[in-house]
Amino acid sequence: KRQIITLSMKMREKNCGIWKSKSSPIVPRKNIFG
Length: 34
Hints:
This protein is an all-alpha fold. It has one domain (1-34). It is built from one helix and no strands. The protein has one helix at 2-23. It is elongated and about 25 Å long.
């Protein structure tokens, strides 16, 4: 259960980073592994 939660969190952060980098030139700090 714990591994699935961390995986979904990582995926969510990755998607958020990609979306933010697309909308704005400044790359967010969360997008480390994106």
